[in-house]
What we know:
Blueprint: H1 3-15, H2 19-26, H3 32-53, H4 57-62, H5 64-76, H6 78-85, H7 91-97, H8 101-112, H9 120-139, H10 146-169, H11 175-196, H12 204-232, H13 234-237, H14 240-255, H15 262-278, H16 288-303
Amino acid sequence: MSRRGWALFLAMAVIWGIPYLLIRVAVRQLDPGVMVLLRTGPAALLLAPLVLARRQLPVLVANFKWIVLFGVVEFGVPWYLMSTAEKHISSSLTSLLICCVPLFAVLAQKLRRTNEYIAPKRYWGLGIGALGVALLVGLDLRGGSITWIGLMMGVCLGYCVGPIILSTKLAHVPGVVVVAGATAVVALCWIPWGIAHWPTHVSGETWSCMAVLSVVCTATAFLVFFELVKEVGSSKSVVVTYFNTAIAVALGVVGLHESLTAGIIFGFPLVLVGCIFATSGSKGVAPPELLDEVGRDLNLAVDQQPE
């Protein structure tokens, strides 16, 4: 990746390494649906004036369908599932399960049959990362259950589809327009649920967690992530989950006194190694036989040109 790509990549690792701890704290008092509302609503209010000031409302309207779909699959549904899961499993295990996102991304890329060539080295990296995730889940299964792990797989699926929508349908749309529109729609959808499940008391600690989740981990994060997707592509951008997991695990162990389990000790190093290989090379070098085939096609096209 380029220097700009790495800068965006590392920024996202830090910004998205924080939410797991904050969610674990806030979900003690807040219903998961209320958390989605409080995370998206302020972000929409913060970004909406920028869209209006830049006179980009027509752009939002023209791309409204895809912006809504992005919002639903990237955080409207996944954030509810994640918050629900974190009521029952640790923030460390939650973040570690998110490491499955790059595996979903490569599978989706193969199913879509894009022109982007995936170098064998990246496959090795994803395979090593998958082994690490298997160890994490297998050795730490007592820390959760099949149900909550299943919910997290739903989160991973959403986190995989979201970047694909960004790179294929919304790459020409300014990031602030996408995030403002998506968060506004999701917040409006969750208002009835939020009213019905509003808690009788919310502590200052919980309010602080939600403020950081909304302003830093949503409004700011998705603007940065939008640039990351445009810089390195959708399949590689989701590999950031390997990096933010390290931060999330450290915060969970230090801040919430969660156990440093056998799954983390043996599985996480493999996840990190997998990340290094999976992010190496932008698009890889096509094999000689593929280059030869392209060359033959070009020569044929030239021969068929009229004199």
